[in-house]
Design a protein that fits this description.
24% strand, 22 strands, alpha/beta, elongated, 7-stranded mixed β-sheet, Leucine-rich repeat, LRR (right-handed beta-alpha superhelix), 12-stranded mixed β-sheet
């Protein structure tokens, strides 16, 4: 970080000297002409970032030299939101560039930035604290990189943020409750190393998409999930280690299109209230400890395209379920169906069910 700061100061000195030497030119047409202070700051920030990149095998940033930052690959300029006569850097998109390096603190100079996309690179380290100055940042996608450390708390202080994607990194530790108080539309936390639980305020989040799969998130699904009914369209909670039952009030999520709770330790029955979720297109409850009858009204949902309930302990399904074209019922205890568990295994499970019936009935 010290080297990055030294580079920043050096660049400012160079720019200042060049500008002074150009003052005698009436029209100020020098090779280093920068139209306004915002683009000058962008030049400083992007040159510092270029210096912080350790590998660019595809030469994506090969043209990141000179003052015309609006022509840099992956850099997008637009009129400033507070002054349409001023050009400024509004977006950066380096998706799939395969660049390695870190994010220098000078990126906080890009105060008009609305989009910051770094999907599928090899950036490491953390998000600089200077990102707190990016009050207009609307989309932040740093997915599929090598970022590490605790949850990047700086994102909690970005007032315009609507889209947050930090999946496929090495973040670890707790997920702060405050992230579910943000006015986000989409939240992707999956495939990190978070060790936490789903907080009680989960239902306060207004997101339409929430993905947190493949983390070490224990505990049960909080009752507040039902409060997300007005906005939630997709939720993926697979491979977390969740326990407890699926609550009956999950049926309140009538706008939900995708529900995936596979590869957990959920028990009890599949709630009949899911049959009220008429927008549901994909339902995956595979690899849990669910039991009882598969509700017929779930199989009758009008938009259901794929229903996977394999590797549970279901004991029956109606002909409506059997006729579903895209379903997987293998690995259960359903008489007459192929590829089921052995009778001995099923008898043992039902002699000592994973969840007490009384416990789930109160959910």
């Amino acid at each position: 970080m010290k080297n990055s700061s030294n580079l920043s100061r050096a660049l400012w000195v160079v720019v200042f000297i060049v500008l002074l030497s150009s003052e005698s030119h009436q029209h100020f047409f020098s090779p280093f002409f920068i139209p306004n202070p915002r683009l000058m700051k962008a030049y400083i920030a992007l040159q510092a970032w270029k210096h912080a990149m350790t590998s660019d095998p595809n030469e994506f940033t090969a043209n990141w030299y000179g003052p015309d930052v609006c022509n840099y690959s992956g850099v997008y300029c637009a009129a400033a939101p507070d002054d349409p006569h001023i050009l400024t850097v509004a977006g950066i998109d380096l998706n799939h560039a395969n660049i390695a390096g870190f994010l220098p603190e000078e990126l906080g100079l890009l105060k008009d930035l609305a989009l910051f996309h770094l999907n599928s690179n090899r950036f490491y380290g953390t998000i600089p604290a200077t990102f707190i100055h990016l009050h207009l940042l609307y989309e932040l996608d740093i997915s599929n990189n090598q970022f590490s450390g605790p949850f990047p708390y700086i994102v909690l202080y970005l007032p315009s943020l609507k889209y947050l994607d930090i999946r496929f990194n090495e973040f670890h530790g707790d997920i702060p409750d405050k992230v579910f108080e943000l006015e986000l539309d989409a939240l992707f936390l999956n495939d990190n190393k978070f060790a936490s639980s789903l907080p009680e305020n989960l239902g306060n989040s207004p997101v339409s998409v929430f993905v947190i799969a493949n983390n070490n998130v224990s505990g049960s699904i909080p009752p507040s999930l039902a409060k997300m009914a007005e906005t939630l369209e997709e939720i993926i909670l697979s491979n977390l280690g969740l326990t407890g039952c699926l609550r009956q009030d999950i049926g309140m999520l009538t706008g939900l299109k995708v529900l995936d709770v596979s590869f957990n330790k959920l028990c009890g029955t599949l709630p009949e209230s899911i049959g009220k979720m008429r927008s549901l297109e994909q339902l995956n409850v595979a690899h849990n400890k669910l039991s009882g009858q598969v509700p017929e009204n779930v199989c009758s949902l009008p938009n259901l395209e794929k229903f996977t309930f394999s590797f549970n302990y279901f004991s029956g399904e109606s002909p409506v379920c059997i006729r579903l074209p895209a379903k997987d019922d293998t690995g259960n205890c359903i008489p007459g169906r192929p590829l089921q568990r052995s009778p001995e295994e099923c008898r043992s499970f039902y002699a000592h069910p994973a969840c007490a019936a009384s416990t789930c009935s109160r959910s």
